[in-house]
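> forwarded from #structure-qc
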């Protein structure tokens, strides 16, 4: 491209060399140099107005400084000299390649200084242009970098926005999840197995199960029964099927306990139901085998034998009823009789079916020929079969001898079943009777032992009669049971609730206990002891040491004179006495002695609270103890039965002595326990010493070779 540009420039100069002045030629020289630079640069934008002005100014300045002498040869001849021509061509070539040929520049400067200046000026402008280009490129790069930064910032902002949106979505999802968690689960219907509703449902499902257990085999054996009441059987069968399907749903919603709580999650209940063995039986019982009726006819009820897989529900109903009834022994006996009757019924139906398959009246063992009008009746068929089954299973009568092999095998099975039935009857009935009479036998054993003792000690007949009457009263009034013995198997909380339910109202009637804490009343309720007194018995006499207070539950007590006849007052239900004596109030004129004679008019039931039990309960309630003592003092002051000087005095030395005795007793107990701990410590220390000595002996017996082997094994394991 440089050569082409130079040639075009030379042709232009040839056209302009004819009528041009020196100034114009100088300007043309400058333009020629600029054309060279433009061809070398290869950019049309380099011909700017600013570059033209600068080149003109440079040429004029050089012309003023170095005036050119006039020569005879023309400008074209001077330019066309061989040296200049070669120099210009080399200059153009070098400028196109890289502008780095310093030798050609020296030659030009020596011969043509103006051309050298123009070339240098052009090179300078080229360098400036290159610098400008570099600056432009740098600016473009900066702009591109800024754009990229802006794009990156935009992308970052977009990513931030996306992240914010994602966070917002996550927060929304979390809020939705929290709302879902906060929202209570939809309540679904759950059957609680411990509720009365579950027992009522068992009684409902027990009906269809018992119907199928009895009637399917009967209808399958006695065709006349099946054909005569077809509509009734259809209604009963499909009603029982509907109840079966409902029972399967109830089973899938029956709760169970997990960590002591009733599970109410429908998915868990269904999963639990699927793992039970009863699930398989329920599925079998619901198989629609009635579809076989379409092919074989409706008079084939034996296709419904799969409904008997629900019999577990009937057994469960019997178990629940046994735990709920107030007469468990009678229920067990009736339940046993029912099982025996069901077995006899099934055996009778099987006997009739075998007779039908062999042929009625074909031999002496089978059912007689039904062509006889007496044996053709349905009632006679069933009663005869039931009679034969009862005789065979109970083995108490003679039956016709079997003739065929099938008959022999069936009779053998019946005899074995009969033996088992007889053994179960004898065993169960005997156990039930013994359980029913267990309490009476135990009570009678107590009476017999006391009678023997009184006869051995030669007690008077009057006193012996009173003792026997007292026992009779206990038995007739059903007060023979020992409450502590009966309730000892219960936990303390349940025991306390029963005692509160029975005795708390009675205890609240006592004046000094009316404003006491509930905890103290519960403690006292558990310590009440029931006692029964016969007519004429003295509960306490005047001057006796008061160790108990009494609350009348039932009966009448009379406060009598020393003669035992004169009655001052009669105490009835809810009355109490002896509460002051067990408190041991200081300054009481009566001390802890009884101040009246109290006698039972008839049979009386009382609750007794001993002084030791009261004080044991009051140790945990010191404020209640002070309140009770203040109430007791107020009662004694009202009746003028307290010495105020003694009551207001300091602590009683007797009380201090009692406290010291108690402290000594506690100290003795602590010393005993400390001695036990020391003995255990010494024994364990001796054992440890023995083990240490044994280990030392083992360590001494180990050889260095053994240790090296152990170290090598460890290194191998590490590697």
């Amino acid at each position: 491209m440089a050569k082409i540009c130079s040639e075009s420039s030379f042709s232009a100069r040839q056209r302009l060399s004819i009528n041009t002045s020196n100034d114009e030629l100088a300007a043309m020289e400058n333009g020629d140099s600029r054309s060279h630079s433009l061809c070398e640069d290869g950019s049309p934008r380099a011909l700017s107005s600013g570059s033209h002005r600068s080149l003109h100014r440079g040429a004029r300045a050089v012309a003023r400084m170095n005036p050119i002498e006039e020569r005879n040869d023309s400008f074209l001849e001077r330019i066309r000299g061989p040296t200049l021509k070669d120099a210009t061509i080399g200059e153009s070539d070098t400028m196109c390649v890289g502008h780095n040929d310093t030798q050609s520049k020296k030659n030009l400067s020596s011969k043509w200084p103006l051309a050298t200046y123009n070339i240098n000026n052009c090179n300078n402008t080229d360098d400036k242009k290159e610098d400008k280009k570099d600056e432009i490129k740098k600016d473009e790069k900066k702009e591109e970098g800024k754009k990229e930064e802006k794009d990156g910032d935009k992308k970052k902002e977009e990513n931030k926005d996306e992240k914010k949106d994602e966070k917002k979505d996550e927060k929304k999802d979390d809020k939705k999840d929290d709302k879902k968690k906060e929202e209570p689960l939809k309540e679904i219907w759950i059957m609680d197995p411990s509720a009365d509703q579950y027992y009522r449902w068992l009684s409902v499902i027990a009906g269809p199960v018992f119907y199928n257990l009895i009637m399917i085999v009967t209808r399958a054996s006695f065709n006349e029964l099946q054909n005569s009441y077809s509509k009734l059987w259809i209604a009963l069968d499909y009603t029982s099927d509907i109840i079966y399907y409902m029972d399967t749903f109830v089973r899938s919603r029956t709760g169970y306990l997990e960590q002591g709580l009733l599970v109410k999650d429908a998915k868990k209940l269904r999963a639990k139901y699927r793992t039970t063995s009863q699930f398989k039986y329920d599925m079998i019982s619901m198989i629609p085998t009635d579809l076989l009726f379409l092919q074989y006819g409706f008079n084939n009820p034996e296709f419904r034998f799969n409904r008997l897989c629900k019999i577990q529900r009937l057994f469960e109903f019997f178990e629940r009823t046994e735990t709920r009834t107030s007469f468990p022994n009678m229920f067990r006996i009736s339940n046993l009789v029912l099982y025996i009757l069901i077995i006899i019924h099934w055996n009778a139906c099987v006997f009739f079916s075998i007779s039908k398959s062999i042929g009625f009246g074909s031999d002496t063992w089978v059912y007689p020929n039904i062509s006889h009008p007496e044996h053709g009746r349905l009632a006679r068929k069933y009663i005869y079969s039931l009679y034969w089954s009862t005789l065979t299973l109970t083995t108490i009568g003679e039956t016709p001898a079997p003739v065929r092999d099938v008959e022999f095998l069936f009779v053998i099975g019946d005899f074995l079943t009969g033996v088992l039935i007889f053994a179960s009857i004898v065993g169960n009935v005997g156990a039930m009777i013994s359980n029913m009479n267990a309490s009476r036998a135990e009570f009678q054993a107590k009476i017999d032992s006391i009678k023997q003792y009184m006869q051995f000690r030669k007690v008077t007949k009057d006193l012996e009669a009173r003792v026997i009457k007292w026992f009779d009263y206990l038995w007739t009034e059903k007060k023979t049971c020992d409450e502590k013995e009966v309730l000892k198997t219960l936990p303390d909380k349940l025991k306390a609730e029963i005692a509160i339910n029975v005795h708390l109202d009675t205890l609240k009637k006592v004046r000094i206990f009316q404003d006491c804490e509930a905890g103290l009343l519960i403690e006292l309720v558990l310590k009440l002891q029931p006692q029964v007194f016969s007519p004429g018995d003295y509960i306490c006499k005047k001057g006796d040491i008061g160790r108990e207070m009494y609350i009348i539950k039932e009966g009448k007590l009379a406060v009598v004179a020393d003669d035992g006849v004169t009655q001052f007052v009669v105490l009835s239900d809810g009355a109490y006495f002896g509460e002051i004596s067990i408190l041991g109030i200081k300054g009481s004129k009566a001390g802890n002695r009884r101040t009246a004679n109290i006698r039972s008019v008839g049979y009386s039931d009382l609750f007794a609270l001993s002084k030791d039990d009261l004080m044991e309960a009051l140790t945990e309630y010191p404020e209640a103890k002070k309140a009770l003592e203040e109430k007791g003092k107020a009662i004694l002051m009202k009746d003028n039965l307290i010495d105020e000087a003694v009551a207001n005095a300091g602590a009683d030395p007797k009380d201090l002595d009692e406290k010291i005795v108690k402290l000594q007793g506690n100290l003795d107990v602590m010393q005993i326990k400390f001695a036990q701990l020391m003995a255990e410590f010494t024994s364990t220390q001796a054992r440890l010493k023995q083990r240490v000595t044994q280990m030392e002996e083992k360590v001494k017996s180990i050889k260095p070779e053994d240790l090296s082997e152990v170290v090598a094994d460890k290194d191998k394991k590490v590697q």
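QC bot note: Residues 113-182 form the longest helix (70 residues). The chain is about 70% helix and 5% strand.
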